[in-house]
Design goal:
Layout: E1 2-3, E2 7-9, H1 33-42, H2 45-49, E3 56-58, E4 64-66, E5 83-87, H3 93-97, E6 98-105, E7 108-117, E8 125-129, E9 135-136, E10 141-142, E11 144-150, E12 168-176, H4 177-180, H5 187-190, E13 195-199, H6 209-213, E14 218-219, E15 229-234, E16 247-252, E17 254-255, E18 263-267, E19 278-284, E20 289-295, E21 298-300, E22 305-309, H7 313-324, E23 329-331
Parallel strand pairs: 12-23, 14-20
Antiparallel strand pairs: 1-2, 2-21, 3-4, 5-16, 6-7, 6-11, 7-8, 8-13, 9-10, 11-12, 12-13, 15-16, 15-19, 17-18, 18-22, 19-20
Length: about 325
């Protein structure tokens, strides 16, 4: 959710012209196959392309109102060490291991970004995204129909059946109570704005995502140093962005003084749809590999900046819960 001193969520997709491709579902097999098949059938081309914008503006009285997206245009290119928003053309791990996140709340269908990260389990894969891409206490609690659509950029057909690898349906979501019990998207929520999705077999080959995609992205739950360089990625869909182009920013990390220095910021003009996309430290531009150490969380209206939570032991605890979760799980206690 993004903030405007006042927070506006960075999570969404504007309605796009539909592509002339049939929307046949990918059918899952094996354990829980019927439920996966139901979810994959739900995500038709029309539903994916018309997933609602979920930007919220925080008003002076503390309430939230829906923001109205502006028309799309083509993102510009980047140069040098600092990039405020450009198409990622370097391929590599980040193209393959990041993707769109599709989900449903009581108020409709939504879209975010997410990344497949390394884990120690043999029976599941784990995707990291923002907390507000998995849970909203005021909109039904845990998201439903939660689906990971990797490497969307390569074959942006808006159908799992015509995608590069197929899609994976979450069997469980793990969110910290610090986010779930925050009472709205506020300072507390921004400091817990992460979540982890559990994926079992799926995709065209009906296997684990890391097997199909050939790897995972490294992760770290230790906060990076202020002043260090990061590359953050996502699929922004509002303003000048299309929603089907993997986009990145690169800048030195700073603390957010308007949020009591409790979260990180970078110069970046990515918009709604990029929420949950990875911040990658030690990023190798040749291989597209790095270490996920934050995610896109929020921004302020009138600023070309994006902000993310500082990972810590609570992030690690949420991830650990996902490694063993058999269903949706709230972790820890709220401050």
């Amino acid at each position: 959710m993004r903030r405007s001193r006042a927070a506006i969520a960075a999570a969404l997709l504007t309605t796009l012209a539909l592509l002339p491709i049939a929307a046949a579902p990918v059918l899952a097999q094996g354990h829980a196959g019927a439920d996966q098949a139901r979810v994959l059938s739900y995500w038709t081309r029309e539903r994916i392309a018309n997933a609602k914008p979920r930007d919220f503006v925080r008003n002076a009285n503390g309430s939230f109102s829906r923001a109205t997206p502006t028309p799309n245009a083509k993102p510009g290119g980047g140069s040098g060490n600092n990039v405020l928003g450009a198409s990622w053309t370097g391929g590599g791990a980040v193209l393959k291991l990041s993707g769109k996140v599709l989900f449903t709340m009581n108020s409709g269908d939504y879209i975010c970004s997410g990344t497949l990260i390394n884990d120690s389990a043999n029976d599941r894969s784990i995707v990291i995204t923002a907390g507000h891409c998995s849970y909203d206490a005021a909109d039904g609690g845990f998201a439903r129909n939660w689906t990971f659509y990797p490497e969307f950029d390569t074959n942006a057909t808006y159908t799992c059946s015509q995608s590069r690898w197929g899609c994976w349906v979450a069997t469980a979501l793990a969110v910290h109570n610090g986010f779930a019990q925050s009472g709205g998207f506020n300072t507390q929520a921004t400091t817990y704005d992460w979540s982890f999705a559990v994926l079992k077999n799926g995709g065209f080959a009906n296997n684990l995502a890391e097997t199909a995609l050939g790897g995972t992205m490294a992760k770290s739950f230790a906060a990076p140093a202020v002043g260090s360089q990061t590359f953050n990625f996502g699929y922004p869909a509002a303003g000048k962005y299309h929603g089907y182009d993997l986009t990145y920013c690169s800048d030195q990390i700073f603390n957010d003084p308007l949020n009591q220095n409790l979260t990180f910021g970078v110069d970046c003009d990515m918009t709604g749809g990029s929420s949950g996309g990875p911040w990658l430290g030690s990023f190798n531009t040749s291989t597209g590999a790095g270490t996920v150490d934050s995610v896109n969380s929020y921004g302020y209206s009138g600023q070309k900046k994006e902000y993310g939570p500082k990972f810590n032991s609570n992030t690690s605890a949420t991830f650990s819960a996902a490694l063993n979760a058999s269903g949706n799980t709230l972790v820890g206690t709220a401050p």
